Amino acid sequence: MTLRVAGLGRRFGLADVLADIDLELPAGESVALVGPSGCGKTTLLNLIAGLDRPSAGRIDNGYARPACVFQQPRLLPWQTTLDNIALGLKAAGMARRERERRAAAMGLRLGLADADLDKFPHQLSGGMQSRVALARAFVLEPDLLLLDEPFSALDVGLKAELYALLLGEIAARKASLLTITHDLMEAVRLSDRILMMAPAPGRIVGEYRLERPRGQRDEGWIYRTTAAFMDEPAVRAGFGLPGQGGGAAAADGGSVVALASASAAGRTKGRA
Fold first, then answer.
1. pTM
2. How many CB atoms sit inside 10 A of residue 111's CB?
């Protein structure tokens, strides 16, 4: 199973929002698309999810069961927590008793209480709504999970808890993860590989592989690695920061970040 994106472009009217996007996501890998607001991250994710059509290029998605978690929980206000979690199972034609059993088990697994399952979205906190949105995706047993900054509005403690739940679930299922974020530390925490985007038009300007496995990253390593990324020329250029930086930094006596490729210009040249 692999997701392949080749020469992808998206135009709205006369404006090129995305141009010349190439990426691959093989089974079991976690990739983060990082970039400033307005660089086309959400547009790219919507294209991959099949919610929009590209203006150029192609998407070959070999995954059988993709699932999305959006920036807003997008819960149906007239449905209970249990019914919101079970929504995808219902759409798949699963019998009511079985889908409610699976939805309840997943909700409890993600930290919801029994009493929460009978509540409506307006009765839940923002953190609880985020748990419901994750549970709705996980209960489908996806082989590819697409995340559109679902943790951006949460406090630090809740983020840490949901990060742990997310990493545990994708590790247990050997699922692939494609997440978009403007939070570089979140990308370092969750991904095996980081693709740096820049705007006008949205394009990939750098690709980096993290050497330490996800399950072995402590907080100190995450902080140091994020600082190392902030010194990368492509990262600084993508976020519009002054200065060129000094390249991939080192910590703990060894390279923290291994560069897999350099720039969008280099990619274009290689295809010519």
1. 0.88
2. 16
